[in-house]
Amino acid sequence: MPIQWRKYLWDEPRLATPQEFEQLEHQWGVTLPEDYKRVAAAHQGMTPEPGVFDVGRGTNVISVLLTVSGDAGQDDYSAKGAFEVLKPHVPEGIYPFAETPGGEFVCFDYRESQRRPRIVLVTVEMDIHPIANSFSDFLTALQQPPLPSP
């Protein structure tokens, strides 16, 4: 099922520029996956539908794709701001790109590979759970929420 991106932070999409990605990569010292940059450039601050993902211990949902662009009114939803929250609590090499409704973060995990980061969930307890082997695998695995039992 193709992903539909719905408004979350703004009424209209706000495109992220290549310069904004370069700045984030420089700040974090990583090369972000190209597939992520393509998606985030067009859909930062939006929510995917479907947006449910399997964590192995159950399912969770993405509420918003964190922003790459600076926006003084939406600092709570920026990748840079989320990283500053996580940085003292997680190992080096973990960088957030999405948030869940419960305040958990979906992150790139560069600890094993600088070229192809895995995708992990960082819980509010700062536990780290694997989700997918790549950003593309993560998007492909997004699903609709289960229907309630009759």
TrEMBL record:
Superkingdom of this protein's organism: Bacteria
Domain Knr4/Smi1-like residue range list: 15-141
Cited SUPFAM superfamilies: SMI1/KNR4-like
Pfam families xref list: SMI1_KNR4
Protein name per Swiss-Prot or TrEMBL: SUKH superfamily protein
Organism: Archangium gephyra
Taxonomic lineage of the native organism: Bacteria, Pseudomonadati, Myxococcota, Myxococcia, Myxococcales
